[in-house]
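Q: Could you write out the predicted structure for this multi-component system? I'm mainly interested in how the pieces pack against one another.
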Amino acid sequence: MSSSADAAPLPASALASGVAAPDFRLPSTPDQLVSLHEFRGRPVVLVFYPADWSPVCGDQTALYNELLPEFHRYEAELIGISVDGPWCHLAFAQDRKLHFPLLADFEPKGAVARRYGVYRAHDGFCERALFVIDREGIIRWSYVSPVGVNPGADGILAALEDLAPEEKTK
Amino acid sequence: MTRLTLPVTDRDHMQGAAAAPVTLVEYGDYECPHCGRAYPIVEELRTNLGDRLRFVFRNFPLTQVHAHAEMAAEAAEAAGAQGHFWEMHNALFTHQNALDSSHLVQYAGRLRMNAAQLGEALAAHTFRERVREDFMSGVRSGVNGTPTFFINGVRHDGPFDLSSLTEAIDAVAG
């Protein structure tokens, strides 16, 4: 049963620009699954964060929520991922009125984060890491922020701009 | 080191001496409780530093979290267009629990501005673009929450209590 992707060695650090983004299939709600390849043809911003209710994540998700119209100008989809379960994500998203999907890297715990090289095994949650993936599914920018520091959005917007230089003039 | 991408110019609302050696820029949200806590601290800093400090406020309303933040920001800008930005700024930060449109217009009246004109500007969202411009300049400069301070163009990543800010300013301007 094991595919070649499963057998691939886990990266020791965050996947870098130029690498194909590993595909995954994770719950976005208690009864819905989302796969990365469904977004092929559009840029994807993958936001790994440690936990739903911690104060820094709250600020970070609030900022990205506010910036969705900007991301959509680049036709980009924003996706959050943490090891929290789908019910936890649901409560968090409702509480914060988030308008983007939060995926549950819950079982096996952190499996997707490990494949992106952003799992903190000693903590049991993932790094605060950002990946910008192009329309063909290739990682074009990645960044790992110190866990306690909200990385903001300037790097994401600059990376999206680099993907679509013609957007700059709009 | 994260830097301010939009330099301070005449478009900004400023307090203090133009030639001050230190410029403190705050990106803030009038409905944000943390910004509310920062407000008296900034006032105290201004008193303590006098001519050494120039203070600039830019809007960073998190509208999905704070229902009235956008209107409050537009009201400050509308007041600014009448030459009363800081009076409105003070009123907003001292009435953070009453920022709906009718209160905003009331404050304008109480501050002897043209309240009707301010009400019209709010209804027409005359200053929405300006507020958005502030917001995006913040995003591009690495603002990651409110309040975010920049001291002479460099983001201040530490806490924003009086002694931390004073220390950070002294480090820049000795």
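A: Regarding packing and overall arrangement: Chain A touches chain B at residues 59-60, 62-63, 65-67, 70, 96-99, 149-154, 157 (CB under 8 Å).
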